[in-house]
Specification:
It is globular and about 50 Å long. The chain has 245 residues and is mainly β. It starts with a helix and ends with a strand. It is 9% helix and 44% strand. It is built from two helices and 17 strands. It has one domain (24-241): Jelly Rolls (Sandwich), CATH 2.60.120. Strands 1, 3, 4, 7, 12, 13, 14 and 17 form an eight-stranded antiparallel β-sheet that branches. The protein has a seven-stranded antiparallel β-sheet with strand order 2-6-15-8-9-10-11, with no helix packed on it. A two-stranded antiparallel sheet has the order 5-16. The structure holds calcium ion (CA) (2 copies).
Length: 245
């Protein structure tokens, strides 16, 4: 017993050093209570057949039938974590969790610094149709279209594949954005996959954290795909503030 206690103390000491620069890790949700209380679930697809389920202690966002890739809402199923709304500590930091695309065509990941008045956000995604990870800026009222992809990884080097479970780390600190991801059964890499500066959305622009599933119509249409059944799983979501309060 004594030894176990000693080991546990050593572990927490290591964790304390790792987090010394920022705040303490905040559990967003592990869904082990079997419900999605605290999440506002919204189906932005035209098809309107999306469901949000907590099954086997994880969160599943899926459409109940294939939907055409011409759907103007690109099959978007959006779950907003309500506790982050209007809380400045969530504007800078790392959102971390498990993601998996369960069907070909599904894109899944995290949206951060969401603003629900102007409908703006940064997004960090794994896309089965691009076959890799990317970061975008979302601005619903942008005349050139709501989505601007601002960084994309090389699918040869950093593949994102259907049925594979990854850990995704999406980070925002001021105007620096990074994305790190790796298959859960592999060792964590030392390097991030994507890193860039973007000045479009300030930390003051929004604080909302969300998980989303949708599809990317452009690569799908180039592949001759006409419809997608969106289906993604997320779990073990947490947030590490970039700065102490
Ligand atoms: Ca869980
Ligand atoms: Ca719950």
């Amino acid at each position: 017993m004594k030894r176990k206690w000693f080991v546990a103390l050593g572990m927490s000491f290591v964790a304390a050093i790792a987090l010394a620069a920022g705040g303490s890790t905040i559990l967003i949700d592990d869904f082990d209570d079997g419900n999605s209380d605290g999440w506002e679930e919204r189906d932005f697809s035209e098809a309107q057949n999306g469901v949000f389920e907590v099954s086997s202690g994880a969160y599943v966002l899926r459409t109940t039938a294939p939907i055409p890739i011409t759907d103007l809402g690109v099959g978007t199923l959006d779950a907003d974590w309500e506790a982050s709304e209007g809380e400045p500590r969530y504007a800078n930091g790392t959102m971390r969790g498990i993601i998996r695309a369960n069907t070909d065509g599904t894109t899944v990941g995290f949206s951060m610094r969401e603003n629900h008045e102007f409908e703006t956000a940064y997004g960090f995604w794994g896309s089965t149709s691009f076959g890799t990870f990317y970061i975008d800026r979302f601005d619903l009222f942008d005349p050139d279209g709501p989505q601007t992809i601002i960084a994309m990884a090389d699918p040869e080097e950093f593949p994102f594949e259907v049925g594979v479970t990854y850990i995704l780390e999406a980070s925002l600190d001021g105007h620096k954005l990074t994305l790190k991801a790796w298959p859960i059964d592999e060792e964590e890499p030392s390097q991030v996959i994507l890193s860039l500066h973007d000045r479009e959305f300030d930390p003051e622009s929004g604080t909302g954290l969300a998980v989303l599933a949708f599809f990317d119509p452009l690569p799908l249409s180039m592949q001759g795909v006409t419809e997608v059944e969106v289906n993604a799983t997320v779990d073990d979501l947490e947030f590490i503030p970039a700065h102490k309060d």
